């Protein structure tokens, strides 16, 4: 693949990288570093992309693996308030919806790295089979984890809303 084609693909799908960066890095500097690291790893690995899956599935896998490695290297402690402050919420929503969304993001931020990855893929409308391919687990395992995660997120976000 030519550099120009790669840049075009990354540009067209950069929101995947941004989403992963927002979940796994706190400061804007760390997010920029992680974005560059993901892009570099994608460039290094693009010749191994065989097209057996969608490019977006492959990019998610590269992004998540890079983010997990980045996190381990830096051994970062994320704080819920900093993560919520750095999120951009849509302006057209009502204040109550903003509170619910903030509570959900707080709950998501407290999940394990794998669970965050599952929720991120779920929110991007990936099916369980695709999610399993990205994370290297079976679709059945994804289904079980998602059922537990949905229940946990509902409980946690309600708890945040009740504590406000």
* Residue runs with pLDDT of under 50 for 5 or more positions: 76-93
Number of strands: 0
Give helix % range. over 70%
> What would the average pLDDT be, to the nearest integer?
82
Strand count, sense and barrel status of the largest sheet are: none
Total helical segments: 9
Please state the structural category: mainly alpha
Order of helices and strands: HHHHHHHHH
What is the rounded Rg? 16 Å
Rough outline? globular
How many structural units, i.e. domains? 2
**Euclidean distance between termini CA atoms:** 51 Å
Oligomer: single chain
How are the SSEs placed, and which strands pair?
Layout: H1 3-12, H2 14-24, H3 28-45, H4 55-74, H5 80-86, H6 95-109, H7 113-123, H8 128-135, H9 139-162
Helix pairs in contact: 2-3, 2-4, 2-7, 3-4, 4-8, 5-6, 6-9, 8-9
